Amino acid sequence: MKILFVIKSIIIYIIFNTYSYAVVSTPTPTTTLSKIANSMSYSANNTSQNVTSNTSSTTSKLINSSKLTAGIQKSAEKYGLTIDADAAAIVASIDTSSVESMSKALASLEDNIAHLDDDYVQTIDQDTIIYDSDWVTLSKVTGGSLNYTSNNNVFKSGASQQVRTQVYVNFKKRDIFADIDTKITRAVGAGGQVNSIGGTEIATSWRTGTGSYKKLPVVATDDRRIGDGWGSHAGAFAGQLDKFSTMKKSTTTLQDACTHCDAGSYWTVKQNHIEEYNNNVNDTSSFGSIYFYGKFTTASEGAEGVGDFAFEGGFTADGASEQEFVESIERYEATGTLTAKAAE
């Protein structure tokens, strides 16, 4: 496996240097190769029984990485974009057959989108590439470093919690936005009782705002408050541009309250965030919202996209502490590819 890793590192190093005539913001080769090594470190624990299958997978990734890297160079030259070589190396090392590989890569990529004014006119034309996830069923997450609960008080056990994202990327205009659809089945049924038989389905759709970008790969995130009967609104944690992959800051604390909001406004109080996402609707001060987070990346025009999606919600009694709420948070997530096609 060490030999395969060295071969892969050398080939990707050669690819980047072969196309050095593009407009590239390039760190030293050592840094780039180190990033690739880190993003692939999980594969070093393969057992001897997995050597054959992993050799085939590695060969496939090398071929795909070569094409993807060439595509980045082509799009950068065509549209006058620069290349974040660190991010490009991470994306090029993704094994799309491995959820762990995709999830780890996405987590290490930083959002590079600048948000445009709300009155920006969104258009879908012949230069638009549509990245479609189709309907994705999220899986329940328990334990882990943030110790998500195994309770089923928020989301109905056994029900399909689903999301579909269609991301519109126009490399000529350098803009990006998305249509997001969610189908969430809560455990709470009629009368506000946790019900393993019944349950309330929340079907919600929204279109994000528009972002612009100057670098490849494109990396964009969105977070949302999804309600029962009132649709969705933007999340309101911490800074204006901060979007969190989870509501948990630690195993016992919530993400910080809004820091850009006017002094004394609703979202500057952390307790109000707790009430927002508390799904115990028998607590009349709770709103029963679901927290949504999504992250997307694509390396170049027409290249495959990768997305990460999550739902979260808590369930506590009236007057519960921050720690009690955080420890009650249930989480569902999914990571997968988005197929690219030209808009008609």
Q: Compute the separation of the termini in Å.
A: 45 Å
- The tally of beta strands, per DSSP, is 16
Average pLDDT rating: 80
Estimate nothing, just give the exact number of structural domains.
2
Structural Rg: 21 Å
How would you sum up the global shape?
Answer: globular
- Helix count? 7
Helix content: 25-40%
Strand content: 25-35%
For the biggest sheet, the summary is: 13 strands, antiparallel
| Low-confidence regions | 1-63
Given helix and strand content, the structural type is alpha+beta
What does this structure look like?
With 344 residues, the chain is an alpha+beta fold. It folds into 2 domains: 2-108, no CATH class; 116-342, no CATH class. It has 7 helices and 16 strands. It has helices spanning 2-18, 29-39, 51-79, 85-92, 99-108, 270-277, 322-327, and strands spanning 24-25, 82-84, 114-115, 128-132, 136-137, 139-141, 162-170, 175-185, 201-207, 211-212, 215-216, 218-227, 231-234, 290-298, 305-313, 330-342. Strands 3, 4, 5, 6, 7, 8, 9, 10, 12, 13, 14, 15 and 16 form a 13-stranded antiparallel sheet that branches. A hairpin with a 6-residue loop joins strand 14 and strand 15 (305-313). The longest helix has 29 residues, at 51-79. The protein is globular.
